[in-house]
Design brief:
22% of the residues lie in helices and 30% in strands. The protein has helices at 21-33, 37-45, 100-107, 171-185, 241-250, 268-272, and strands spanning 2-9, 14-17, 59-61, 71-73, 79-82, 86-93, 111-115, 120-131, 140-145, 197-203, 213-218, 226-231, 233-238, 263-266.
């Protein structure tokens, strides 16, 4: 299930940290934790653990969006100056549709401060709208990453965590295995796996001609801060609809609960533009 949240912002001008993924993630956890015991049990029972102890937090979210000409990056800083009266965020959960109204109700009228140790913005939810995911009637879908996709932490040198580039030969296997594990952890089974295929279709490139990446600092300006690197790209995914919906709901790749791997289906005409 996916929701579009509209925030009303407080004050005339506020300063948002550029590294806002961790504060947003923490707020979503807090909202979910406010649910009654019955729903909390439902969350736990929807498979947040695999037999090998690996865990997945089965939600993800988009970048914050502001109306045009209502924000700007502050030069030589990791801050964004915001004078908009509204902001928008999409949040997606891998949960049965029957819980849509309940989850929506948890977020209604919530107040949030999205901030780090230095600055932040104060906002209140003014509207929440459920969004339907409809797949085109084809087994192969073209999908676009709206937030960076993170995969493949290298454990050979734990002092310098490295993340897999989609240009690597082993990236396809990492991507598919991660998606299958998420599907399994949600309590679902997949009978046919042999025809699943993944192919990077386009890497959004910057002025240097290199693949577009994003380096996000988690827990910025604290002793626990760490940097995570992800890639923006379009890809083709050939798989059963239920597996594709798992990726769209929970996110593709790793660290989805920090807002990585949030994607959307695009059609051929939109792609070629």
């Amino acid at each position: 299930m996916r929701f579009r949240i509209k925030f009303s912002l407080k004050g005339n001008r506020q300063t948002l940290p550029l590294n806002y993924r961790y504060p947003v993630s923490s707020w979503i956890y807090k909202v979910l934790a406010s649910a009654d015991k019955e729903f909390t049990n439902i969350l736990h029972n929807h498979g947040y653990k695999l037999n090998d102890g690996k865990t997945f937090k089965l939600f993800t979210f988009s970048n914050l969006q502001f109306p045009r000409n209502t924000w700007k990056l502050i030069p030589k800083s990791d801050r964004i100056s915001v004078w908009s009266r509204n902001a928008y965020l999409q949040v997606s959960f891998l949960l049965p549709e029957q819980y849509e109204k309940f989850v929506s109700g948890l977020f209604c009228d919530q107040k949030v401060r999205i901030a780090d140790e230095i600055s932040g913005i104060d906002a209140e939810i003014s509207q929440i709208e459920a969004m339907k995911t409809v797949l085109p009637e084809t087994k192969t879908q073209i999908i676009r990453s709206l937030t960076p996709i993170v995969l493949g932490i290298t454990e050979k040198d734990k002092k310098h965590e490295q993340y897999a580039s989609p240009l690597l030969a082993e990236y396809k296997e990492l991507f598919i295995n991660n998606l299958l594990q998420k599907h399994e952890v949600s309590g679902k089974t997949l009978e046919e796996k042999k025809d699943i295929d993944f192919k990077v279709k386009e890497l959004h490139r910057n002025k240097s001609g290199k693949p577009k990446t994003e380096l996000q600092t988690i827990k910025a300006h604290t002793q626990q801060q760490t940097k995570i690197k992800g890639w923006y790209y379009d890809f083709e995914l050939t798989a059963p609809d239920e597996l594709i919906k798992t990726g769209l709901s929970a996110g593709f790749g790793s660290m989805n609960s920090l807002g990585f791997g949030f994607c959307e289906i695009i059609n051929d005409s939109k792609y070629h533009k």
